[in-house]
Amino acid sequence: MDRQARITEIEQFIGYVIEQWPRDRARYQDQIAQRCTRCILSDRCAPIEDGLCAHCRAFEAASEPDPATTVSFPGASEEAIGAVLSRYAGAGAQDYDALVMFSGGKDSAYVLHRLRTEFASLRVLAVTVDNGFLSPVAMDNVQRALPLLEGVDHMVYRARPRLYAQTFRHAFTHLNEGGCYATVDRMDGDLTLDIGRNLAASMRIPLLVIGLSPPQVGGILGLSTFETTPAEEARRRTTAAGFDLEALYASDDWKYWWDGTRWPAESVPHVLYPFCGWNYDEQQIRGDVVRLGLVGPNQDNPLITNNDTIPLMLAVDSMFLGFSGFEPEFARLVRGGGADRNFWLAVCEALELLTRQGRFLPGCLDDTLGRLDLTRKDVGLPEQQTAAA
Ligand SMILES: [Zn+2]
Description:
about 400 residues, Rossmann fold, two-stranded antiparallel ribbon, 10 strands, about 45% helix, about 10% strand, globular, binds zinc ion
């Protein structure tokens, strides 16, 4: 499938979600899960009473914020993040002070923009790790943003192609109870961040900046802090998504995973998650990066940016869990006012119905499966339906 066909299929889905789904919804209501009237959460994910999911009921009732709803990072603030960034300006032993993971998505573009404009003396290297499944739009966004990020150098890192393909193939066929979000996406994220750690260590770059959203830092990485110090980073990762890495990989692939004990102490980076202290408003960030020209108009949707594996993850989770593993994260953003409820509600509902009918982005799904040497049956998806609804 060529890149334009992929983009066209996704744009048609988004067009359907925005234009047609609100009119189709009533007709299919009995075929899809009930959803929370405040956020978007499916009753397959959390019980719903009087229209509200358990998280929203807790959110409304509690004087203390529900820990499942609000991710808080003690001590995190604009000032605390700024203090770390200022401390490292000029501190690198060699050419750079900060390595910023740059996926081409809106969040990492926004981080780079803020570092460039607010911390101009920080010497920044942006790194894009190409896992072989980066969407063409993500690479376009990288190319578009770089000329606008004055003073930022950029590097693309490509590991041997089989590294990620093998990782994804194993993860898609050995899902844990959290589905793709907690298995495939987790392996991808952990491996990519560990490659970033290794690059920072080998290039003696003392600060690693990661533009994950607060729900991702809290929910996926399981961190309750906006930073990890070099002392905390001086450890070895032995598992990811529950898999024993030594058992899963040949020994010459172990080097991609982080082993902070094999580096001298002064090479181990400090890791910073700036969105934990900055206000994370998905819609505001989306608006800002499009206005600044860092992300193309209509190319800021996470279905299109990021990875070609995402549509497959959404569909597999929809069958495996009954909802997409990304839903709790978007529900949390909707609940906090940081994401557009109507859009995400429609995406989740249409995804659920079309996946079961074998009509959700069929070309994209089969293309990604083919590249992973997997079939629909291998990942529990119904065969593609070509008949109209
Ligand atoms: Zn809710």
